[in-house]
């Protein structure tokens, strides 16, 4: 029989898949003997069963009732009893942290009778009514579907009438009045009364948390973080402890190290006389955690000891929620904390130095996506004036955009291609779409543990919180600071590393990490972030099996790629060498009416191509350079069809004689026109029907190799034939290639060895890889085209047309052009690797689509047995790091979440 409920004492952190992260860690702290309010967890299996059937699974109500009875016996109180009520919190907790994305209901068990008993037993009437109004607001919005903003409006009107700056300015009578207003609001909006039965409150609260797994903001967050939709959430039911009992009580969130920078020390926020939700919601400005040492030295000392215990136990940065109830410290949650990319590298390095983890573990805790963010430019503030405002640097980086004041406007402008900064007093979970769309988030309230800070760090978004100088007017769509007013649409710059906001667009400068890679790792400092990154890169290079090459078409790109650590070129696209002034020579080749004219045009192109190859081979001396023969259809090198027709028509309308050259070009364009040129005359097909083209390119490669060898170099050119569908195509081209190589070798007296291979970029090639391997010395997967042809997608068309809808509907969790589609395209890769190596065991296999630089895809290519990945030069460090992580994990997992 399936079991759906576990007491905290029965679990542990290894059960996060069943108990969710929150439930598993509460169980772990309970087993460690930490002061955790007792409770139980309803499993993710129960959630999945509920979401499948639409009703609570059989036996769940009974199990909850049994565990509630045990909790009541241990507490000596019953849920919601009038004289001395036991109250409960009901919280979500998925396998992966999703801060603020699902629901929480506090103070479950209060009703019109038990609120009076709570007031009497606590000796604090205001506290009792404050707790009841919280339950009504959370239950009314989460369970009964009332718009949460309506509760805020009622509160705001009451505060205005009383002249109260915040909720602490309301007394017990005010809060009792607020309770009645909230109950009336619920009744008006739903047609039903707030349930007075504590058992009904608990049951409906649990089911509402289940339902919140499929709420809009939860689904958006999962898509953004690539969290599977089928995991479900657990629900923790826990005895309430109260931080809103007065000045000797409060709630806080703490980190064992700074989650923004990684610096050691205690970081966090504390809010006296408040429940936990107040801290992350930013409704009142918190005080720094150190201030707790002055407010309550004993609790602060105890908290500091427990934080040290937890960090040592988890061997990582811990994110902790706690409440102090009349001087007694309670631990409400811990988890391995979200952190910025900078903090991830810094903390991993520190923990190695402290002997808590190994170098391999440190490498496993950083990721390529984070490394890429560290390579982004930072602001160059040397030439700008004073900042508009300063706040808390919650998530580092530099971002420029137009100020917007609500989530919908951020989404609208971003969809139109505009970069925006979302400015709010504080964010709520409902702001998630705007946070995803924005370049940065700026709030006037909250600290490093506020909703905006936590979510922004998790997403790698720039964020400045608690900029108290800024007065945000969301209705007027502006903010003011000092004598300056910033209207919506005004460009501002947000520096999440320094916590500063500047007017206009501040210029950017390379990051220190980028400078490190630009200098080939020679610019490493003795300490700091750059040194930590350097150590991670050395560790990755020491353990990785996958080689890392670059896609580069010029000597400059090749040299940069080598500085970035590339071990060769996996894709040199020769068509890029035919652009600019050389288009005229290509036009001459296309328009040639005789063999002699065509040869003349090819002869003119040959020395230009040769010199290109000489420069690239020199930059990559001693390393392999895979040169792809011409791939795109020839019409791409001709003027636009419509443009030519318009020029000719305009000349005719003006009575001028039409240009004979334009007419000839238009005739050629019409002759070559294809309805779908990407599936037409291109790649190997072009080489087979355009006489002399393959020979010219191969001769240029061969002569470049000869020139480099005579100069004392070690050129290692490889020739790759694109878009092969059948082994016969490759055989014919390979024979022509080898004939040209032999001719150049005989004429120059220099031995040449340029292996010939092919791109696997069509499903048929992957499925017949065993045959193709008979003629190929190497394979390189062109995963961009392989994805297009496997899915039947034209990338340029479909991404804008319907990919967003596919993501919204959950058909995709990520674009297949961004991360390899393992089930389809990945399966073709695996078949081709297995069949190719069965025929030629020493077959060298790589990938040269941009998937080669995607962190998750790199793990797949490692598991699939490829020899190397190739990507753009700037992604080479990312691929190196992820190749190392893939070797350590021994799995096909991806970047750290």
UniProtKB/TrEMBL annotation:
Reactions listed under catalytic activity: pyruvate + phosphate + ATP = phosphoenolpyruvate + AMP + diphosphate + H(+)
InterPro entries in the cross-refs: ATP_grasp_subdomain_1, PEP-util_enz_mobile_dom, PEP_util_AS, PEP_util_C, Phosphohistidine_dom_sf, PPDK_AMP/ATP-bd, Pyruvate_phosphate_dikinase, Pyrv/PenolPyrv_kinase-like_dom
Domain Pyruvate phosphate dikinase AMP/ATP-binding: 58-285, 295-344
Record-annotated PEP-utilising enzyme C-terminal domain positions: 534-884
GO MF term (any one): pyruvate, phosphate dikinase activity
Residue intervals passing through the bilayer: none
Record-listed E.C. numbers: 2.7.9.1
Domain PEP-utilising enzyme mobile residues, every copy: 418-499
Cofactor: Mg(2+)
Keywords associated with the record: ATP-binding, Kinase, Magnesium, Metal-binding, Nucleotide-binding, Pyruvate, Transferase
Pfam families cross-referenced by the UniProt entry: PEP-utilizers, PEP-utilizers_C, PPDK_N
Protein family: Belongs to the PEP-utilizing enzyme family.
Protein name per its UniProtKB record: Pyruvate, phosphate dikinase
Taxonomic lineage of the native organism: Bacteria, Bacillati, Actinomycetota, Actinomycetes, Kitasatosporales
Gene this protein is translated from: ppdK
């Amino acid at each position: 029989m399936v079991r759906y409920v576990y007491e905290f004492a029965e679990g542990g952190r290894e059960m996060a898949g069943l108990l969710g992260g929150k439930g598993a860690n509460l169980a772990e702290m309970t087993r460690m003997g930490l002061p955790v309010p007792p409770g139980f967890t309803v499993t993710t299996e129960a959630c999945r069963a509920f979401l499948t059937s639409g009703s609570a699974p059989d036996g769940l109500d009974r199990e909850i009732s049994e565990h509630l009875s045990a909790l009541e016996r241990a507490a000596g109180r019953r849920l919601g009893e009038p004289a001395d009520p036991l109250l409960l919190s009901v919280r979500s907790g998925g396998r992966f942290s999703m801060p603020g994305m699902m629901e929480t209901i506090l103070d479950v068990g209060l009703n019109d009778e038990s609120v009076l008993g709570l007031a009497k037993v606590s000796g604090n009437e205001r506290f009792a009514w404050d707790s009841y109004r919280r339950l009504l607001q959370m239950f009314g919005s989460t369970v009964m579907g009332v718009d949460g903003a309506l509760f805020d409006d009622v509160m705001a009107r009451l505060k205005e009438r009383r002249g109260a700056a915040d909720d602490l300015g309301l007394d017990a009578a005010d809060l009792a009045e607020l309770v009645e207003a909230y109950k009336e609001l619920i009744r008006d909006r739903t047609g039903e009364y707030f349930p007075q039965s504590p058992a009904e409150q608990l049951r409906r609260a649990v089911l509402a948390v289940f339902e919140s797994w499929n709420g809009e903001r939860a689904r958006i967050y999962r898509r953004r973080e690539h969290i599977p939709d089928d995991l479900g959430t657990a629900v923790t039911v826990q005895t309430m402890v109260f931080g809103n009992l007065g000045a000797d009580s409060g709630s806080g969130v703490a980190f064992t190290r700074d989650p923004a920078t990684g610096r050691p020390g205690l970081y966090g926020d504390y809010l006296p006389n408040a429940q936990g939700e107040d801290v992350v919601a930013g409704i009142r400005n918190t005080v720094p955690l150190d201030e707790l040492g002055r407010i309550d030295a004993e609790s602060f000392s105890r908290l500091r000891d427990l934080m040290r215990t937890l960090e040592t136990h988890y061997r990582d940065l811990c994110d902790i929620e706690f409440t102090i109830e009349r001087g007694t410290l309670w631990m409400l949650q811990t988890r391995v904390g979200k952190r910025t990319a900078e903090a991830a590298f810094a903390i991993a390095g520190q923990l190695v130095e402290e002997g808590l983890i190994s170098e391999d573990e440190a490498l496993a805790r950083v990721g390529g996506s984070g490394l890429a963010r560290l390579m982004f430019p930072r602001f160059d503030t040397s030439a700008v004036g004073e900042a508009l405002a300063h706040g808390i640097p919650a998530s580092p980086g530099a971002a420029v955009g137009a100020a917007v004041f609500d989530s919908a406007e951020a989404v609208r402008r971003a969809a139109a291609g505009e970069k925006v900064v979302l400015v709010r007093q504080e964010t709520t979970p409902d702001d998630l779409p705007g946070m995803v769309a924005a370049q940065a988030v700026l709030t006037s309230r909250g600290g490093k543990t506020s909703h905006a800070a936590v979510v922004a760090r998790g997403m790698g978004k720039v964020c400045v919180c608690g900029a108290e100088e800024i007065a945000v007017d969301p209705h007027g769509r502006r903010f003011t600071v000092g004598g300056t007013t910033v209207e919506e649409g005004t460009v501002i710059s947000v520096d999440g590393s320094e916590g500063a906001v500047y007017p206009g667009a501040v210029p950017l400068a390379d990051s220190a990490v980028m400078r490190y890679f630009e200098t080939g790792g020679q610019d490493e400092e003795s300490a700091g972030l750059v040194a930590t990154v350097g150590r991670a890169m050395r560790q990755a290079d020491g353990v990785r099996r996958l080689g890392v090459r670059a896609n580069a078409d010029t000597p400059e790109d090749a040299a940069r790629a080598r500085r970035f650590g590339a071990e060769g070129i996996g894709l040199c696209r020769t068509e890029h060498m035919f652009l600019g002034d050389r288009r005229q020579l290509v036009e001459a080749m296309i328009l040639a009416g005789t063999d002699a004219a065509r040869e003349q045009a090819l002869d003119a192109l040959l020395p230009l191509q040769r010199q290109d190859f000489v420069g690239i081979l020199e930059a990559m001396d001693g390393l392999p350079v895979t040169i792809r023969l011409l791939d795109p259809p020839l019409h791409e090198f001709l003027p636009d069809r419509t443009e030519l027709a318009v020029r000719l028509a305009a000349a005719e309308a003006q009575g001028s004689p039409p240009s004979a050259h334009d007419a000839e070009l238009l005739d050629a364009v019409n002759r070559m026109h294809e309805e779908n040129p990407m599936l037409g005359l291109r790649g190997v097909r072009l080489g087979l029907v355009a006489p002399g083209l393959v020979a010219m390119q191969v001769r240029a490669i061969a002569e470049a190799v000869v020139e480099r060898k005579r100069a004392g170099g070690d050129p290692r050119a490889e020739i790759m034939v694109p878009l092969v569908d059948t082994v016969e195509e490759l055989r014919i081209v390979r024979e022509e290639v080898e004939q040209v190589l032999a001719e150049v070798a005989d004429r120059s007296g220099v031995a040449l060895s340029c292996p010939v291979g092919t791109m696997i970029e069509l499903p048929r090639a992957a499925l017949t890889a065993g045959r193709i391997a008979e003629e190929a010395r190497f394979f390189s997967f062109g995963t961009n085209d392989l994805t297009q042809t496997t899915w039947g997608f034209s990338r340029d068309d479909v991404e804008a047309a319907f990919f967003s809808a596919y993501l919204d509907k959950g058909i995709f969790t990520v674009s297949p052009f961004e991360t390899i589609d393992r089930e389809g395209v990945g399966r073709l890769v695996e078949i081709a690797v297995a069949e190719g190596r069965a025929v030629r065991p020493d077959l060298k296999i790589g990938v040269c689509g941009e998937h080669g630089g995607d962190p998750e895809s790199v793990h797949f290519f490692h598991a699939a047995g490829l020899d190397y990945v190739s990507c753009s030069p700037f992604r080479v460090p990312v691929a190196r790091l992820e190749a190392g992580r893939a070797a350590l994990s021994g799995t096909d997992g991806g970047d750290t979440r």
